[in-house]
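Supplementary Methods S3. Complex input for the molybdenum atom-bound model.
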Amino acid sequence: MRRRYRPPFIPSSEITDEKLWRDRRRIIRAAGIAGLGVAAGGLATLAGAFSGRPPGKGKGNAGAGSEALEPTPWKYITHYNNFYELGTSKSEPAENAHYLKTRPWSLSVSGECEKPGILDIDELLRLFPAEERIYRFRCVEAWAMVVPWNGFPLSDLLKRFQPTSRAKYVEFRTLYDPERMPGQKRRVLDWPYVEGLRMDEAMHPLTLVATGLYGKELPAQNGAPLRLVVPWKYGFKSIKSIVSIRFTEKQPRNTWNRMAPDEYGFYANVNPDVPHPRWSQKRERVLGTGIFAEKRPTLPFNGYADEVAQLYAGMDLRKYF
Ligand SMILES: Nc1nc2c(c(=O)[nH]1)N[C@H]1C(S)=C(S)[C@@H](COP(=O)(O)O)O[C@H]1N2
Ligand SMILES: [Mo]
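Predicted complex, serialized as structure tokens:
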């Protein structure tokens, strides 16, 4: 999480996917098909789909103040990554993606619930069809992007296992398998990667399980076959390549909080007023806009304050950072 930015190397073969997606979107819009969440009235750009309101099915929601934002190009979303299981630099996760075989894969759900169980990934993908959600994404290292995810609300998945009234938190774990995740051969983190959410955060309609990107299968470097996306929190909360979910009574100890408790909190809500101990969080650099592009201001809750600020009413957000 501490490296300086190097422009990523981009093979031209990677650029096709995003172009296809844009062409498809253009065709759908030109045909006047409803369901994209784009109001009638001829929006000039795709970014016009960003309303800042809670998302409906297939609707973009890149947060308040995102009107001028375009989805970040595929090549940046897939070649500038944090995924320590596949290497600690930004370029290694894409280079090492081939190690991460995503079949067989299953998700176990346990803890404080009536119906614990194990779901095979293909069964899971059948049960929970993906819709498109365009979200802002903000890493704790002060870079940002806009991502067209495909996924489904985490709440749909969790409800199936019937959490009990003792379930106050949800804990997530990444696969532990040094053969498929060669970064785990070195003890740079305390493997496996663990994250957690409070139950109300986990059940919030913005909280997504992502299984795809730009209408395609999720690339390994982005957390295939399934990863969490919590758009109002710093990127490290969005745990990748999940194999286990556990309902708990006590707050889980998330990996980065265990590594450096004064730098990474449990809540990790995007907050321009609370600096990281080693850098400011007031501004962010948008990937794909060029290294000379001006930084833009970071918004409270990453632009989703209208939707989520009430979850933290009465909490001191400097203490619970
Ligand atoms: N298992 C796992 N999940 C992880 C990480 C990681 O190293 N391992 N990095 C986190 C961090 S710090 C960020 S910013 C995002 C990056 O997601 P992206 O590469 O898809 O942009 O993944 C998060 N999820
Ligand atoms: Mo991050």
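The first strand starts at residue 106 and ends at 111. DSSP finds eight helices and twelve strands in the chain.
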